[in-house]
Please model this.
Amino acid sequence: MNKFKIVAFYEFTELKNLLEIKEKISKFSTLNRIKGTILLSKEGVNGTIAGSPDSIDGLILKLASYGIKKINPKFSYSEFLPFPRLKVKIKKEIVTFRNNDLDMNKNKGEYVDPENWNNILNDPEITVIDVRNDFEVEMGTFKNSINPKTKSFTDFKEYADKEINKSKKIAMFCTGGIRCEKASSYLVSNGVEKVYQLKGGILK
Model:
């Protein structure tokens, strides 16, 4: 029987009182023996943690009390605790892109649910881009999708500025959805007319 519940989650939402939120999350997680990493910033939260099912469910409720209510959690289970320690950190960004001028709540691509993703892939008028890095793409990707050949996510800006036609329809996907959120916001902010993103990424 699997003893531990693992959850990967993120949400772009404006957060204030970061130190207070960090302290409360750290205290709750320590008391409930939750391990893993949670990143906090003014733009939102990003984390992967593990603990007993009750403790994980409790932390999700705790996050909701801070206004973090749309984390789109992805659950899995394990017979052992996969993380050795707890880390709750305040960062400039919850996923490093090195562009702090993006309004993640205002400018973003249109979500495409997984059940409708094949329609995007089969549309000849839509250019599909794999936002993951070069190593991840080599592990497998969707047929006819474009590999921007990036070593890290921060390289995507340079690729987008040089290679993406702003008048074209663009669709993007990544592992868990968070990189597509940032990338789509960047494209929309820079005048790309139509941008789609796979909701939740390819990770189930």
